[in-house]
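Sequence only, no structure available. Ideas?
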Amino acid sequence: MVNGKRLLVIIPALNEAGSIADVVREVRGELPGVDVLVVDDGSTDRTSAVAAAAGARVARLPYNLGVGGAMRLGYRYAYEHDYDVAVQIDADGQHDPRYVPKLVDLLDDYDLVIGARFAGEGEYAVRGPRRWAMGMLSMVLSGLSGTTLTDTTSGFRAGNRRMIEMFAQWYPAEYLGDTVETLVHTARRGYRIQQVPVAMRRRMAGTPSHSPAKAMVYLGRALAVLTLALIRR
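Reply:
I predicted one. Tokens follow.
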């Protein structure tokens, strides 16, 4: 329980055996009494076994569906087990679970709360095409939602029962669908969105896959995803 609400932390994971145990233990230590569900998205390493040994409930997909497919399963689990709140946390340790109560506090007034990296807390920064893409996405989605959103691609989010029910039935599996398209869909249907400043940490294991070439690809894909999300009904 957090702030009187029954809460499920959903962690989508693909080949995160190097970090998932520490992430699960930290969540359970900082948020005692909260349930943790690791959705193993078709890993080829020991992610499932390591997560279970650390105390998480584990749902294992037979093959890789992408973050959107894993999150849809997580929200369906939250809906079928009647949780009040679902919180998304990445498996690489960059999201600090000590911020979770701040996100949950706002769910009394909002449906979806985003942990925002560029809202004045911490030193996380991006440059070049990735920054341009994130700035463009934030400008468009802020206008659509009627509030200032500085980090629309953050995977650190909390949703109330209304969000759990919607995401259990509808959650896009395409590239950036778990971030950009979900926000477009949520805002268009009149759900209330807000953000909370959070500091982002370094990965506990592995290396980021960013490079100038990949950043340009990211910019192009982000533009395409946003256009398709705005066209779809």
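Residues 88 and 155 are 7 Å apart (CA to CA).
Hope that gets you unstuck.
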